[in-house]
Amino acid sequence: MTQNSRWQTGGVRPAKRIFVSRFLLVSILLLLAACGPIPQVDERMKYWTGEAESFFDDRRTMQEVHSWLRSNSIIYTFNDSDIVDGNWTMTLEKIYIEDWRCDWVDIRIEISVDDMLTVQGHKLSQKRACLW
């Protein structure tokens, strides 16, 4: 192969192109596999969704929320300055994952309150330390 023909093909040999293509394909497939569900997280999200739905079925005050958290053995700190723009977010549970995809997942709850500290709504979410 002459110097000019190497420049015309981009300087990459076919075998190297095939290797790079396969490497990229395998990398993409691994990332897609990492996006799949994590069973222990799904199970705990289902649990907390049920707990929150049954508790917040009635109108609640922040005092009742604190009692509910303590009854569920949730360890946390709180003062009124933790409520920002009528919202308070805290971790209900940290799940350590023994998986190559994730280190841990926090199951969190965001509680919206009015000026009288009456709960107006809630939302569960996840905070992940994962590949994706």
SSE layout and pairing:
Blueprint: H1 3-8, H2 14-34, H3 39-55, H4 62-71, E1 87-96, E2 102-113, E3 119-130
Antiparallel strand pairs: 1-2, 2-3
Proportion of helical residues: 40-55%
Domains counted in the coordinates: how many? 2
Q: What portion of the residues fall into strands of 2 or more residues?
A: 25-35%
Describe the strand arrangement of the main beta sheet, using strand numbers.
1-2-3
What is the chains' assembly state? single chain
Q: What is the mean predicted local confidence, pLDDT?
A: 84
Q: Please tell me how large the radius of gyration is.
A: 25 Å
Order of helices and strands: HHHHEEE
What is the general shape?
elongated
DSSP E strands, number: 3
Class of secondary structure makeup: alpha+beta
Low-confidence stretches: none
Explain what this protein looks like in three dimensions.
The chain is of the alpha+beta class and 132 residues long. It has two domains: 30 residues; 94 residues, no CATH class. Helix content is 41%, strand content 26%. Strands 1-2-3 form a three-stranded antiparallel β-sheet, with helices on one face. Strand 2 and strand 3 form a beta hairpin. It is elongated and about 70 Å long. The model has no long low-confidence stretch (mean pLDDT 84).
